[in-house]
């Protein structure tokens, strides 16, 4: 994700949004020739995410970047992540945008990593996934942070996987018919997921050939029952099972124990606590 | 803020980012002629923010919007905020982007509103302000949400107010010299703020004619002492005083009590809990 | 596909590319108030595709559009597809861009439709698919035309389905390992396709759990043998089989007869014969 | 044509359109450090066109490009056109977009070159020209390919040459009046072309001072008669004569023999057969 | 020129540049519901140009526009040009951008009109033309203003007419060779202009078949001599003659008298005095 | 101002606007390998402004730039400002756009510098300021030129300083109320300016706590009286005083003598005489 050249354009937009017609403070106070070096670190333990973007930002502004840690690494408080050398004006102009991106992405990656570790203790084959509840304009970076934290991106957009919800089902005679219609209209390269709320729904979706079945807002016990029944009916194999809705760090273990392949949580990206990040700048 | 026509373009980008080459699920399952109506509400009490943007999104998609509550209103759980009528496909295509914006903006406004209320109980003239720790690409909407929650935006960008920090001061002989240099280089239409960490700094900044003095990471007691001393020296009047750094919902009251004009908190925008928002869609 | 508001922006770019600083001929010769009406039709039988885009173009230019036929319909030579009323200048300014789009899209849809009909006679369950050999900047419209002609879009982009080719396999110990690595790294919402060139490859890919197996440049007879062997091994079910490479209108029937689920042809979009389209303009 | 920096932006758009949020296959299977080299060649004889664009694409993606053949050269099957060295991921990410551009542009150049050769055998001073029937969004590259094949671009846009057609003439009392009105309204830097369908039209256009006279859908014999008559009347000199409409590779020689300066064919760009192009990638 | 939909996008950019994140003054002081009406007029006599653009700006901002005068009209001081009704905030937000455009365009049109009148008195068939010395980003509107003032746009861009200057001639054996090379390389739809500095140059350019001959920085007397000599040689007919360089309102009459077809002046667009324009706003 | 990376994008747009699909003259006449060098100078004395932009333009086009003078320097006629080496085609393609920018920016800087010198002779502490009467799309560069000439930018946009005008006052009971309302609604980081037309207005604005008071269209004598009265009332200190409206190079000295802090003139940017600039190109 995040092929350099394509994200770079967005990063330029972010910088322009923050800089406007110039960093009037630095322009007033700092000589063009004044050089500085920056040391980037976290003020708490966490998982690195956003370092590539920070490096690109400072390169856009004419700095040299020495990457020490890689995105996806677990990093301790105070550990140096990157050194940046360049004009003092450039470091100051990029500082806030860079830290805003890094703080959010590392915040996401750190949380995902913690929850994935919890889940993994209970069930090694269960994945933690994000949803489409990402921040508009920042979705690609939110999803990248999820991956760096060890999570699954889930759908990128409305165009890369079918997800049949109750709103769709309300318009069709049955889950069977909905899956059939989707299969016929959609490219063979796309999976079909159905959101169900009962055992009956799960059985029907499985029989209809859904690739993924999502248990929406169902308690772990009930989910476990569904899986058992699907297994008895010989319908369980060849499908992915996802739980979603109402899942918190507190109950995620129970969901993992219920045998889910995937547990998805909107809060991973819609309610992010930024990691505490710092760029220490020293004039040289 | 947010003159319709200018934010509209950004909202279109947001929609394209999420929809990609089409909502393949709805296209497979729903007729073009199928109409639907949506009811927008919060699943918890909060302050409305983002309703204008939600309305614009659905209008872009060809729906009719009936706005019931206005941005900035305090809203109860389950209260209808807006009704949307249009093609079912349009409601489903815009739902997630709209809710993602609304959830974040209302989350910000609700938090700001709560903290502003706390502060107001202690000191009616103290403002709660955001910082530049907004989300890249979403800064204008983050700041708008702060205003709707009753807060102060602080700087929009690096170009609309001078803020002299320790990094700048490290390059100049004194605060006095820094303020003088800024005053000379920067337009008379801009204010000059100085970040200080001691009483001496505060006195020097005031004498130098700073418009705003920011106490950075100073405990409320120390700040109170600074203000008292500035008052004794006849330097307090005609300036704005801001506290920043390490301020939390727990200690914000103490800062308000210390006599600050402005208390700024990065967490208002860098670590947002999205409000729980819902669009109930019914086919018609 | 082609949510109006998102394609509209691209259509505006197309118009600007062709109009430049103005249609100097019409500006010199035609009064602003001069009205005209246009009748759109094909000069040969074909399948309509691009009518939505033509309508949008003339609406952008301030005309009223009366759509008579719908995209996807089979249309006879000379049959009226659309009537357009508006300023003569607007009709003339949009004519060429509109016809260029319509000619290409209808050309694609018509060819796809013919090949799909051929295939269908032999094997009703076989789909004809395009590839990523679309025209840069025109990919979304090329794919839409394929769908309107009754074909399958195949992948939209490199991000919506895994396709493991020989270049990838050259770097990994085995197909098994490649599929395993993809399954682990890629979201559960994406399918995994493997391109194989031999029976052994097909068996290994099936055993490894590939969702789609593509027979690359294999003669129909050999493919038939592969499928038979997979069936014997109990590996055939639950997978999609695609043939690609060297398929022409002449031999496509044989491929269909070989039992393929999908037959994909690059020529459907890389070597398009435009349909002969005409906008008859009459001054009023 | 195609000043690097301006086309580069469009090429970036093309890449983003195809790559989306990432080449998920390569990202799953290939190490960042894995290097590769590519050899670009045609699988049939042809005229090179698009090599500059291919080079730019791979440079955008961080590869080194060694250009061996130049655009405009006649190239044999299997001859190496370019060598590309860089990260395997970059070669794979750019491959399809690069080949799609190259295939189309070389397809156009090759066809133009063949027809120009045919024409040249009959009449050395006759040019083969394209029309405005180019692909929307791809017009500049289509025209560049025409030039590389030895053809004439004709108009770039509606703003660079006046072309008076029957639709315009329907609104004016006479060709004479139309040419006069155009001459008066349009800059002296623009030529004026008139499309005529009869000898009378040709004579009137010539007398009115048209710079270019286009014989629309007239058989070669009739055109020859027109030219002879214009010559007798002393009106032939100082003007360019173009034939257009219904011209095919089969009859183009007759048109050349009729004494035309320019023969224009829409099919050169509206119905392109892509050249068969290949990028052979080897891991290193 | 200036097809509405294409200039509109640029006008939106202009507005965003000026409004930024909002008109903070009006937002603080004026109710959303407050309506206003505006009367647009000149504070000096002049030629209207830019009214279409002003109308578009206010329509973008949600106002109703009643156009009273048309672009290109001669207008007296204080005469009402347009009435605008809408939200007070919208009128105030658009006022400056609208007036900046109108002031410049009307300034250009008025000056062009005056000079054209001077020229016309001396020589009815002489045109006054602008050059490519337009303001970057504003070229299309500058040229439109020239036309509205009765002038000729000259080249739009480097791509719509060949202009061979001394820098080009320095690289080629002769004018003859340069014209021949241009004729061969450039589309038959483009004119070829040669800039000459002596009688010899003029004769050679005419013999070589240049479509336009530009006398660069030559005094009117010398030009007159050149034309006479060309006439004697039978080379004068069928060509356009342009004078350029060092032409001022004071000496333009002499140039007209010298028999020029076109007199071009860079100052028409590079040194514009804005017309004094006013939008009188009244609250309603 | 003018952070390189952000202005660069605009410069690319400017170039594309002028070059279109190619500089057809140079492409026809000049070899790709032909190198040239350029010498940039003024043909009259002036203040350099726009050199950074010129350098960026030629770097975009692939030239090497040797900057000899810096923006903001006073420069004599014929003095070399910059040397440019690169492909002849690149120098010719960028020449006009570069000179158009340089001519305008240096024209502004030179005029500002002259007026600032006049003002400075009378009153060393008075600043000369521009207004928002900049050219749409060129505002940032216009303002940068003002700074390089020694002037003050005044507001960048409607969002960075409050300016209360008569139109706003018409809607509010009093200046006092308007200032109070602005103070309450607008961020503490913004200044508040009030435009007044009488002594009473000035006194009320000062008492209300306006940061800046603008005397609109008042003669210097009256302004002097206002300041004296404000001084008597103890209201003069701590505020900035600006004169605006009807100020010309002829009377600007009187305004300076009246004790103004700032004198603003719209003509500095709305009616610019371009400096006479030249790029001398020599083939090498």
Description:
- The structure is a homohexamer of 284-residue chains.
- Chain A has eleven helices and twelve strands.
- The first copy, chain A, is elongated, with a radius of gyration of 23 Å.
- The model of chain A has no long low-confidence stretch (mean pLDDT 95).
- Chain A is α/β, with parallel strands linked by helices and 284 residues long.
- Chain A has helices at residues 4-19, 24-29, 51-60, 88-122, 139-148, 166-169, 175-185, 199-208, 220-232, 252-257, 267-270; strands spanning 35-42, 46-47, 64-67, 74-75, 80-87, 127-129, 162-164, 192-196, 212-216, 240-244, 262-264, 277-283.
- In chain A, the strands form three sheets. In chain A, strands 6-11-10-9-8-7 form a six-stranded parallel β-sheet.
- In chain A, helix 10 (252-257) links the parallel strand 10 and strand 11.
- In chain A, 44% of the residues lie in helices and 19% in strands.
- The first copy, chain A, folds into two domains: 7-115 and 272-283, Alpha-Beta Complex (Aldehyde Oxidoreductase, domain 3), CATH 3.90.1170.20; 122-270, Aldolase class I (TIM Barrel).
- Chain A starts with a helix and ends with a strand.
- In chain A, helix 1 (4-19) packs across helix 4, helix 4 crosses helix 5 and helix 8 packs across helix 9.
- The relative contact order of chain A is 0.16.
């Amino acid at each position: 994700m995040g092929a350099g050249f394509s994200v770079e354009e967005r990063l330029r937009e972010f910088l322009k949004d923050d800089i406007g017609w110039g960093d009037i403070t630095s322009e007033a106070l700092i000589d063009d020739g004044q050089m500085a070096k920056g040391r980037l670190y976290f003020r708490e333990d966490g998982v690195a995410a956003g370092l590539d973007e920070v490096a690109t930002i400072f390169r856009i502004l004419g700095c040299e970047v020495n990457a020490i840690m890689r995105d996806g690494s677990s990093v301790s408080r105070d550990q140096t992540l990157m050194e940046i050398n360049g004009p003092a004006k450039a470091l100051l102009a990029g500082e806030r945008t860079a830290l805003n991106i890094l703080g959010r992405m590392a915040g996401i990656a750190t949380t995902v990593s913690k929850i994935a570790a919890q889940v993994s203790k209970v069930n090694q084959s269960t994945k933690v996934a994000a949803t489409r509840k990402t921040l508009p304009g920042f979705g690609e970076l939110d999803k990248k942070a999820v991956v760096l934290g060890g999570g699954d991106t889930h759908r990128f957009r409305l165009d890369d996987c079918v997800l049949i919800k109750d709103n769709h089902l309300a318009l069709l005679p049955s889950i069977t018919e909905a899956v059939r219609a989707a299969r016929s209209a959609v490219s063979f390269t796309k999976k079909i997921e159905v959101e169900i709320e009962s055992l009956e729904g799960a059985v029907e979706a499985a029989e209809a050939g859904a690739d993924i079945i999502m248990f929406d807002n169902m308690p772990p016990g009930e989910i476990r029952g569904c899986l058992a029944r699907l297994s008895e009916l010989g319908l369980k194999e060849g499908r992915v099972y996802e739980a979603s809705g109402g899942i918190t760090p507190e109950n995620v273990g129970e969901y993992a124990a219920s045998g889910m392949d995937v547990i998805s949580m909107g809060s991973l990206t819609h309610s992010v606590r930024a990691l505490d990040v710092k760029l220490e700048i020293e004039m040289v």
